[in-house]
Amino acid sequence: MSSCVIGRAKRIVGELRVPGDKSLSHRAALCAALGEGVSRLHRFSPSLDCERTLACLRALGVPIEITDAEDELTVTISGVGLEGFVPPGRALDAGNSGSTIRMLAGILAGQPFESTITGDVSLQRRPMDRIAHPLRLMGASVRAREERYAPLTIRGGKLRPIRYRLPVASAQVKSCVLLAGLFASGTTIVEEPVPTRDHMEIMLAEFGAEVSVVGGVIAVSGRPRLRAREYRIAGDISSAAFFIAGALALPGSHLFIRDVLLNPTRTGFLEVLRLWGARIEIENVRWWYGEPVGDVRVVSSPCRERGQAEPLVLSGALIPRVIDEIPLLAVLATQMPGGMLVRDAAELRVKESDRIRVTVENLRRMGARVFEYEDGFAIAGPQSLRGAEIEPEGDHRLAMAFAIAALLAEGETSIRDPEVAAVSFPTFFHVLERIVER
Ligand code: S3P
């Protein structure tokens, strides 16, 4: 296993685009496969996770071509419609990707053949009962190891529409039920007590499904004909977040990131930074296929001047809107007066790693004072970090969050297994190298 060594940085300066959003790319590929005709998806995410979604669709008989020109992936998918999938020759492999297994399961539940889907060691530890339960209510047969883990063996066909209230705030579960709803005779309804990212409902409507959203109630009509389309994927805000955080924390930085996805269910991170006094300007806002997109300008901010010692509190309905950025916010919190308190975030324990434990342990390795709760943590701030050996435990977002911590720390930090960044952002370390000044 390799490691990379990162030293303290002076500042971050640059102008860039980040790769296409991972959440949008998965969904665009699934909708294109379900559509009739040829869809072209521009600026598709180069992540290993999205590669898994494409590989699984190919194994289900969907013709897919990938071209890589001028640093941009274009994926051409010849949709097979709702009925054109074929039984895969062997178990589908979702790799590390929770989105792939949970969303694809919704489509597999609509197939009249049996298929098995599994993933890597991390994915086989993550809870799948949250999708197995609603899919069974819809009439699919779902077998799971110990009733809740992958491999999942699914057999379905014509499904019953259900009205389902999400027991956990999860966009993956919502998306799974909505996709299965396409195979139901009637209207499937998902109620979400707390809003989560709404890309699936927006995307389904863009591809021609009948979708309505009123408050937290989402309804999709069964048996639609989805149409193929041209689609341009906005830049991944969860990837941009690492550079934005670095630029804010290093005095003298300025950074400009074009074409960033700014869907409000994803921008909790920017709101938290503004509460810390950050200067972030959004320019040139426009709409791409129902999703807001803009350019983000960041100038390092004198956050430390915020003269109060109360911790910033992240809890309740804010959590799903910042869920993937919490480890990164934990790193930044060490630099902020009052630090940060995170509660209601127990979901972090069932991500690619136990993100509460892994964040706390690595911050402690860097000398930080941190208190761990079952559903979050408290981080003192401001406090200095010192270089350390970081163990991201195979979690891409942890490897990248601690690469940013390394820029702020005294001395050198070594990050074990940095290649895991490729799960969401294969060029992360190259881009970082390009924009960091020492
Ligand atoms: C995602 C939803 C979130 C998020 C994940 C991507 C999605 O997971 O953490 O990275 O694209 O729907 P949950 O739905 O499990 O909260």
Q: What are the key terms here?
A:
single chain; 438 residues; alpha/beta; UDP-n-acetylglucosamine1-carboxyvinyl-transferase, Chain; 2 domains; five-stranded mixed beta sheet; 13 helices; binds shikimate-3-phosphate
Per the CATH scheme, the topology name of the largest domain is UDP-n-acetylglucosamine1-carboxyvinyl-transferase, Chain
Low-confidence stretches: none
> Structural class per helix/strand content?
alpha/beta
Strand order of the largest sheet: 17-18-16-2-25
* CATH structural architecture of the largest domain: Alpha-beta prism
Fraction of residues in helix: 25-40%
Q: Say how many strands there are.
A: 25
| Bound ligands, each once | shikimate-3-phosphate
Summed up, the domain count is 2
Task: Indicate the proportion of strand residues.
Answer: 25-35%
Quick summary:
The chain has 438 residues and is an alpha/beta fold. The protein has 13 helices and 25 strands.
Give a structural overview:
The chain is an alpha/beta fold and 438 residues long. Helices cover 29% and strands 28% of the residues. It has 13 helices and 25 strands. The protein has a 5-stranded mixed β-sheet. Strand 12 and strand 13 form a beta hairpin. Helix 1 (22-34) runs parallel beside helix 2 and helix 2 packs parallel to helix 3 (98-108). The two termini are 27 Å apart. The relative contact order is 0.14. The site of shikimate-3-phosphate has 11 residues, from helix 3 and helix 5. Shikimate-3-phosphate is lined by residues 23, 98-99, 170-172, 175, 197, 323-324, 347.
